[in-house]
Amino acid sequence: MRETILLFHFTDREKRNKIAGALFPLKLKIKEVEKKDYLQPIGFLAGNKDIPPVEEEYEGEELGAEMLVMAGISGPRMDMVLRAIRKSGAGSIPYKAAMTPTNQYWNPVQLFGEIKEEHEKMHGKKE
User: How remote is the C-alpha of 28 from its chain's centroid?
Assistant: First the structure.
């Protein structure tokens, strides 16, 4: 599977373009995921041919914020990606994750919920 960055709910074109420009030299695939595809497994969205798609389309609420998922990227390469995004001037992306053997079967809504919960616990914002 090719190294891929999945972008969810990036409505600010300038921010999205800054991220794409920063990651272009790293030769990563960048995929903007449409809301209707939020029931698809993360692994399927990232191009893992062993994970089948689901037939239904998502009709629920949009994610509460932007989310970026790195698939097929690990170690020093992930550090390079994060550094490039930070230097791009795109601003903060609090909800970031790496695709794992476990979460590749989750859909974006499930993954966002997990990341959001962890983020709130780390920053003391849990209600």
Answer: 13
- CA-CA distance, 73 to 17, in Å (whole number)? 21
Using CA atoms, how far residue 120 sits from 17, 93, 112, 126, in Å, is 28, 14, 12, 5
Summarize pLDDT for 56-106 with one digit per residue, the tens: 999 999 999 999 999 999 899 999 999 999 999 999 999 999 999 999 999
Q: Which tokens belong to 33?
A: 């995921």
The pLDDT tens digits for 93-108 are 999 999 999 999 999 9
Per DSSP, the three-state class of 99 is coil
Output the six-digit token pair for 27.
């030769």
